[in-house]
Amino acid sequence: MRRILIIGAGRSASSLIRYLLSKSEKENLHLIVADLSLALAQKKTQHHPNATPIALDIFDVEERKAAIEKATIVISMLPAHLHIEIAKDCLEFKKHLVTASYISDAMQALDEEAKKNNLIFMNEIGLDPGIDHMSAMKVIDEIRAKGGKMLLFESFCGGLVAPESDNNLWNYKFTWAPRNVVLAGQGGAAKFIQEGTYKYIPYGALFRRTEFLEVEGYGKFEAYSNRDSLKYRSIYGLDNILTLYRGTIRRVGFSKAWNMFVQLGMTDDSYIMEGSENMSYRQFINSFLPYHPTDSAEIKTRLLLKIDQDDIMWDKLLELDLFNADKKVNLPNATPAQILEKILSDSWTLEPEDKDMIVMYHKFGYELNGVKSQIDSKMVCIGDDQTYTAMAKTVGLPVAIATLLILNEKITTPGVQLPINREVYLPILEELEEYGVVFNEQTMPYFGYNPDLF
């Protein structure tokens, strides 16, 4: 049997494992599901006869190499920084590798050797990065095939809570990596191109510069800019495009409310707060407020943020129980960002019956035969439950489908790569539609950002 080694059985692996097990009889597959927690690996394989759960410590070099040597192909669902040693072992034992993570410099450095050994190291084949690449390149390639010239490309994606589970004032719950949410936008100004001009948004202004999006059946959303929208400009072949912008989707009002945390300094991850372990939630927020002999923390917060007590922004803060003097942080040597994550997790953790939602929205502006047009492409995916979430589905299924395509020699181009070639994105997007990951495209006149000119 063909042995697929899956390293990492976390939340994103559930749909991946289920898909491959469903194909295991027909495709002659045996899954080795490896995780530091044997119990977790056992839970994900559910006693399937074509799966073997194993405990694997990837820092045990002999154990790791032995597992990889026995595999036909390797899938790494570990955090991105842990892929590289697995990739080096795959080179040593001549195994293909699939990951959902961004291509790091260390991974890219293996490209030449992977090509020499005719190995496919497929990366960025999850949701974002992944489905965003594939769905974008499909439309861009179709426009180019007709002789069209790209004028604008905007791409937005967000992990949200499904409408039926949306029951807080923030219209948001953590569906993936809370720490990434808290630190979003940090590390430099957001950079993009609009009408041929480079634009920059410093972190302090990021959440007040949003764009609105409408998705039929789901209402209005907003998006704030990703830190570097230009990362894929050359990869997508869009070096001469007038507008290139990538952003993160939230419900309208989220960004304005989140900006309160930014202005207070609660998202800072650069220093440790003394006494954090015994600090109350009230002491935490009061740490960022000026001293006043008589004003309460509530009054000082409203004055500093310039919000009235009947403002919905105030209600959003109260909903988080930020001013509770009895709740303790219980985190030693914690940064403000770590404490904020802890507080938000109290209110924003998905309940067992909750469902998540993925929204992706692309805009393509182009000129063809002297006529300027725009295609809007939208995708909404709702999770089944807390095991087979929308996030697990949209991350895991592309990984699984790509793995099978590589095994069956439908994807043959070697090297370190992302899924921007037709041999990769066409069959994967087609099969994803069977699982409810469907893009609806609508053509309309193109106005760009200068509507008065038309």
UniProtKB/TrEMBL annotation:
The keyword Membrane does not apply. InterPro entries: AASS, NAD(P)-bd_dom_sf, Sacchrp_dh-like_C, Sacchrp_dh_NADP-bd. GO terms for molecular function: saccharopine dehydrogenase activity. It holds the Pfam family Sacchrp_dh_C. Residues 4-121 form the Saccharopine dehydrogenase NADP binding domain. One of its GO terms (biological process) is lysine biosynthetic process via aminoadipic acid. Transmembrane segments: none annotated. Keywords: Oxidoreductase. GO terms for cellular component: cytoplasm. Residues 126-437 form the Saccharopine dehydrogenase-like C-terminal domain. PANTHER family: ALPHA-AMINOADIPIC SEMIALDEHYDE SYNTHASE, MITOCHONDRIAL (PTHR11133:SF22), SACCHAROPINE DEHYDROGENASE (PTHR11133). This is Saccharopine dehydrogenase NADP-binding domain-containing protein. The lineage of its organism: Bacteria, Pseudomonadati, Bacteroidota, Flavobacteriia, Flavobacteriales.
